[in-house]
Structure formats: C-alpha cells, structure tokens
Amino acid sequence: MQKTITSKPRPTIPYEHPDLSMYMKLCKENLVRQRYKKAAYNQHDELIRQQFSDSEQSLSQLCETLVQYVAEAFEHYAVWDYTHAYYPGRPSQQNARTDAMEGCSRVLPTLAAWLNQRNGQSSIAGLNGKPIDVTAILSKAFLAGTDPNHKGYWGTLHDYDQRICESADLALALWLSRDWVWRQFSPSEQQQVVGWFKQVNHCQTVDNNWHLFPLTVQLVIKALTGEDCVEQQRYERVKEFYVGDGWFRDGAKGNYDYYNAWGFYYSLYWLDRIDPEFDSAFIRESLAEFIHGYRYFFTPEGLPFFGRSACYRLAASVPQLAALDLGIGRDQTIPSLLSVGEAKYALESSLRYFIANGALKNGAPTQGLFEEDPRLIDNYSGPASSFWSLRALNIALFSGDKNGLWQAEQQPFEVEKDDFSFKIPAIDATVMGTFKTKEVVVVFHSDYIQQQTPASRCLEKQKVQNKVLELLTSRAERPKNNLLRKGITCYTSKMSHFF
Fold it and tell me: Is the overall model pTM greater than 0.70, yes or no?
C-alpha cells in the first residue's frame, strides 16, 4: 500500500505560459546573449575524453583534471565579474539571462569545493597551464551579483523564480568558501550579500524538492550570521514526501526517480554538513535505507536511469559519497554494506563511462547521456543546467581527504558478484541483476498513465517549427520525454530505451 500524500493545487507559473510581454523579454535577452556570447571553448574536449579513458589515471587525478577543465572554460565564458556565463547549447523555458546565471551558480560550488579541499590555495592551473585565481572569482561574483548597481546583479526574486533554485547553489558555494571569501568581506559587503539571499524568505516555490532550496540558503545564513530564519514548515513538508525504503516522491503527485540521488539526498547531505544538529537522525536513517537498495543499481557500464533530467547522470553516485562522509557503514547503529571502495567505484565508473564516451563538450557536461541529445533535454534545462552532473564531484572534493576515498581499493558492484532480485515496496518496483551480462533492470509494477500506444512510448523529436521558434526566442519548445510519464515501466542499465 503506497503512501498517500496530501496534494496542493499547482500554481500557474508565468514562464510555463508566456504572454506577449514575456516573449518580448525573451527576445531582448536573446539579443543580449548574442552580444556577449563567445565562441565554443573546445580546446580540451579530446584531452578530457582521453584522460577518462586512461586506466592508469587515478581518481584523484581525474577529479583534479575535471576541475581544471571546468574552471578554464568558465573563465572563458564568464561575463560581468563572473556573475553569468553564456555557455553554448539549447535554451531553457526561462530566458537567456537566467540560463547564463546558471552558468555561474552551478559552477561556483565546484570551484568552492576545490578551494575548500585545498584549504584556501587560491590558484588552479587550467589545462592550458595558465593560473586561475579561484578566490578572486568567487569574491567578485558574490559582490557583483548582489549589487543592484552592477550589470551582473542577480536580480529581485519573485514567487516560483528559477533564481530561487540557483540561490541554493550560490549559498552553498559561499559556505564552502567562507574562510577565504565571506570572512574577507567588510561588514557592509557581508550585509549586501546576505540581503540578496534573504529574498528567498518571502518567495513561494513549487511544492516538491524546491522546498530544499530556500532551506539551504536559510541554513547558510544562520551558519554565517547567527540569524535564524529557517522555515521549519518547508522541511516538514519535504518529510511528508518520504514514502519509505529511502525514497521520496517529488511532490504529492510526482515521480519516483533519480532526483532522490542528485536532488533530495544531495541537498539533505549539505543541510547536515552546514548544521549537523538540524535533523541528523532522519537524514542518516533515510539515506541508509536508500543505499541498501540503490547500491545494486550500479554497473561498470551504465545505470537503469528512469525519470527526468538524464543530463545529470554524472551525479548518480551522490548517495554513496554522502553516506560515506556521514559515517553510514561505519556507524554500527545504522547497518549498511557500503564500503569506501564501493563508493569510490560508483563515482569513478560513472565518470569514466560517460566522459570517455563524450559526456563533456565545450567545457561543460553535454545535454544528453553521452553526446548532445536534444530528445533528452527537459524544457527547464538550459545550456549550463547539466553542471548539476558535478554534484558527486563536489561531495568527493569536500570529503575525500577525510574518509580515505582517494586511497581506497575499488570494491566490485553486486552485479559483478552474482545474480540478484529483490523488491522495493515503497516505489512498487523490482530490481534484478544478471551476473553474466552485468546488467541491472528496474521494473515498476504500476503505470503512471493507463492509455498507451507504441507512438506515445517513444522518445519524440522536436518539430521543425518549434526548433525555429526556440532559435528566435531562446526559449525551450521541446517535447516532454520523461519515459516514466510515457508509460515505460522497465529500465535497463544498458540504457537501450534512450538510443
């Protein structure tokens, strides 16, 4: 019997239903983008592919190379004191400026995590050998982005604003770099920065994983200033989405999908790190339950992806890395089979498999599983949205030196040991692994939709007229290709349903 969650009416969100004035703004921002965008930075695409194909490269070396690759390209694309970055790629439903803000907000946590790992060592060399001052980038971005008189100002937030989502990443980057950035600001500069973040306290969000974004900001504000503006009711609502076995439903009527890994548990992990007294017991216990089944999903070559945001695929190992750092597996009160070597293998195999097969291009994770794939780009995803793929890397950089991640010997996945089959009752699914083929399959026992046809179940291509409109307005006009919502119930680590 699946848990019933009380639903709330979904609000009308302006960017999902644009009027004439919004289309005019879209066109205006697209013209600005055309003015400031730069040529695609593809100098090191082949190098990064070769590095991740080289079995002699250690995980720590690969992660350092990945940060170098990202940092160098970010410096190339960034504008207005690093507050925005116009990456090449297909636009989102937002506007070009918001897409460019993502080019900053989703990269800064990686730079800040690297800075934290290096204990404030400011300079990283790009793959071209030129030094990049990470502390300066972060400092300039926060001061410029929160200054209403600066061209790079991140703006006034409003209800259901995409920038609420981005503010969480920015707040995390500020917290990670606090010793070398925040504490070097003057009192007036600190007040300016915090003043911008406090806008989230007055904004409504969609009733799903988005509650975690204001919570992240609010816990960072509390950690940095001592001011407690944490909306506990938001957190209680998130816990209402918990259905058991470690799984959250993404809203009362939402999916069960990989947002559990790179959405819910990523945010919950950082809430715990920022404030270990926040709700440590629930976060650890639910994560331990999730890991108990989720660790079986992993194979040396692919995962049984289901749901949306397939472009975040490099972040699939977030739960294992979070569990490792939170002590799950070493804490005898929370039984777990997860080892340091298995967590390492989960991160390294997913990075190697996808990147060696083309998952990085022009300085960013591609909008697809491997190379670019327009069929897999959700309408809310823009050119830089895929940087959420680096969420596992962020945790590894932050915690790897403390928990022996880099030195551990890899341990095999369960599918490399034997066949298996078990149920996850909370999401009404069965997980099966085949030793001989190293394949893992997840089968759901219920449909999201009842009426299906072969045509309705396939990945749709974008119509020509919609592609033209997308080019003119820089607003996504793509079909919705969430296979769960199309009635697909069987997913394999071979990922053949995406090809």
Answer: yes
